């Protein structure tokens, strides 16, 4: 095995460990030392791969986005429903994302810019999805641009409710109900 492959595998293991530690402790409570310990490195060894905690956070967020990636223009509301079902099978990832999102609303948080940009892109993408399926007006009379933030809010809001009380909140079912309200019926 080449040194480059070993280095890529080590980076992947560090990102996975960071996801776990952030899910358990939140970003502010997560330390590089805890991540390093989880992968059998010293903190100095970890810094060889990720020179700062912020660099590691960006790698974690980018990795999560890669898992959910669908080629541009390929999203449809039925695929969104499948994504919600998929998320219901990976509570640790959803918890990490939700914790980071919540923390990122504070001034100076290293993920604030990432989430601000991500939400702008997601809203635009959801408007394109809605326009492709419904045209300029949904059956409820709203435009895709007016509906897109609501769609994103429902997806994220359901995640928070589900994380807090998974036995009482059927996240995939509730999302399908929302699609019905949009006119998916």
TrEMBL record:
Keywords: DNA-binding, Repressor, Transcription, Transcription regulation. The keyword DNA-binding applies. Residues 31-50 bind DNA. Residues 8-68 form the HTH tetR-type domain. The keyword Disulfide bond does not apply. This is TetR/AcrR family transcriptional regulator. It comes from Streptomyces plumbiresistens.
């Amino acid at each position: 095995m080449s040194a480059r492959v070993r280095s890529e595998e080590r980076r992947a293991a560090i990102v996975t460990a960071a996801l776990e530690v952030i899910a358990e402790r939140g970003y502010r409570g997560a330390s590089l030392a805890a991540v390093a310990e989880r992968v059998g490195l010293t903190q100095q060894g970890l810094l060889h791969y990720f020179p700062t905690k912020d660099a590691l956070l960006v790698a974690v967020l980018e990795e999560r986005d890669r898992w959910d990636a669908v080629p541009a223009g390929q999203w449809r509301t039925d695929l969104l429903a499948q994504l919600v079902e998929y998320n219901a099978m990976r509570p640790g990832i959803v918890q990490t994302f939700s914790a980071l999102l919540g923390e990122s609303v504070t001034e100076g948080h290293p993920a604030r810019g990432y989430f601000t940009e991500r939400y702008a892109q997601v809203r635009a993408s959801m408007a394109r999805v809605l326009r492709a399926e419904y045209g300029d007006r949904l059956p409820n009379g709203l435009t895709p641009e007016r509906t897109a933030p609501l769609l994103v809010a429902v997806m994220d809001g359901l995640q928070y409710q589900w994380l807090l009380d998974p036995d009482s909140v059927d996240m995939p079912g509730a999302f399908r109900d929302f699609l019905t309200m949009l006119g998916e019926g």
